[in-house]
Structure formats: C-alpha cells, structure tokens
Amino acid sequence: MSDQDTFVIEDSKKHHKKSAHAHDDFEKYSGYNFGSDLCFTVGISYLLASSVGLVKGFVEGFPTNFSLPKKLLLNNFFNSLGKNQSTFGQKAAGAGFLYYGIGTGMNFFFEDQFEDLTDFQKNLTIGSITGLIFTTGSGGLGFLRGTLGGAAIIGGLSLFTDYLHSKQYLSFQVKF
C-alpha cells in the first residue's frame, strides 16, 4: 500500500479509498442508480406490453378465411403482429419513462410530504398523476380514465410484485 492510500470509516465499516484521480467520480456517485432503475422500468414496460401486443396481433391477424392468396394472408398476419406489438410496447415504454420521471421528481421535491405515506400509497399517487398526464389530449373523460387507469395499473403491479417478493420469487419491489 502506498503512502497516498487512505482509509475511510463509515457506519463501523472500513472502506479502502484510494486518492486516485480516475475513480473519484465513480465512488462519489456509486450509490446513485437513476440510470439503471430508469432503464429497468422502461425496458420491462416495453417487453411486457410488447408481449401483450404480440398476442393481440396474433388474435387479430389470424385469418378467418383461408381462400385469400397465401401472400396476402401472411402479409395481413405479420402486419397485424408488428403494428400491435410496436404500438403497445412504445406506449408502455413512454408511460414507464413518464412514471419514473414523475416519481423521481416528486420524491425529490416533496420528500417531506411523502414521508408519512406507504410505498403503495406513493405508487398510487404517482401512477394516477402519470395516467393524468399521459392522457392529456383525451378531454375530460380521458383525464378521469387515465387517472383511474394509471392508479389501477401501478396499484395492481405493486401488489403483485409485493406478493412475489414476499414469496421470494422476485428480488425487487415497485417503490419510490
């Protein structure tokens, strides 16, 4: 060990910290995982919704009349698959990005107000605001539908992941 190496003691744990130049920023931000959490939220949202869209595209695109030319049948089938899969995936990824951004912002700016709420109540609040913003152009009924839908989707997902986490099937929970 060189003379420039130092030890930092935090919470009765002994950490070896070098005074090297390249790793100072990494050590400074090592507990901050905004990017990985955001990628996880958006990625999982996209994959799950794309799977639902793929199933819907398969159901809608499956031909009822096989008398059409094979090329037209396949074209209709694959167009339906692609359209539904990409539409569902992109909308869910956008909603996941919006949800995570709103949750992080509200947690940062309203930390004292969120202190007394449970994780489930925080998720419902953030989900309803996300649904409200996501359906902004839909009019009055769209606002209500988006708010209730956002709260219902994130509430159900939160309860489902909490259940799977309690059974030790998942190692994460939906919380801010």
TrEMBL record:
* Keywords from the named record: Membrane, Transmembrane
Q: Does the record's keyword annotation contain Transmembrane?
A: yes
Q: Which domain of life is it from?
A: Eukaryota
Which Pfam family would be a valid example here? Tim17
Question: What is this protein's record name?
Answer: Transmembrane protein, putative
Organism expressing this protein natively: Tetrahymena thermophila (strain SB210)
